[in-house]
Amino acid sequence: MIPGFRYIVDDVPAAVAFYRELGFEDVGPRAGGFAMLEGHGLRLMLNTPGAGGAGQSADDGTAPSPGGWSRIQLEVSDIDEELRRLSDAGARVRTSRIDGRGGAQAVIEDPAGNPVELFTPA
């Protein structure tokens, strides 16, 4: 089984285009408000609020929405080049390069504001 994660997005076609830039492939099925992609050994499911079971409100009435700080991490060989390439392609940069003990990271956002961490090990 491929590990999967789900993001809530506002615009499925825009999100699919963004994740294709990150090396994900649109594998379907496609339905109103839903898409499935695979890449980096992961399955990514994208839902708009209200679409399918995953887009439904919580028991307390809270509606799903994009954003937050929980994120996937994608390892890249050259973080500076990837930041430049993705920024030129229209990705929003939440944090520019940050150097830490384990390597360098930067956080970009998909079109709905969900974070994706780019990481280059030390």
UniProtKB/TrEMBL annotation:
Domain of life the protein comes from: Bacteria
InterPro entries: Glyas_Bleomycin-R_OHBP_Dase, Glyas_Fos-R_dOase_dom, VOC_core
Matching SUPFAM superfamilies: Glyoxalase/Bleomycin resistance protein/Dihydroxybiphenyl dioxygenase (SSF54593)
Positions of the VOC domain: 1-121
Pfam short name (any one): Glyoxalase
Annotated region (Disordered), positions in chain: 48-69
Coiled coil: none
Protein name as it appears in the record: Glyoxalase
Organism: Nocardioides luteus
